[in-house]
Prior knowledge:
By secondary structure, the chain is mainly α. The protein has helices spanning 2-41, 48-51.
Amino acid sequence: xxxxxxxxxxxxxxxxxxxxxxxxxxxxxxxxxxxxxxxxxxxxxxxxxxxxxxxxxxxxxxxxx
Length: 65
């Protein structure tokens, strides 16, 4: 009788774990979709602003000690 109860409890625990993993995977999928939507919503910087700058800008870093 005790063996049947332990086996039954183990099966319920395994089923519970499987449901928890499935819910976690679904939550991760939704989070990934939301993150991609946010990344795609970021506007692209205008390309003309870089063309208006002199070519020597951004080549050196001025530091002092």
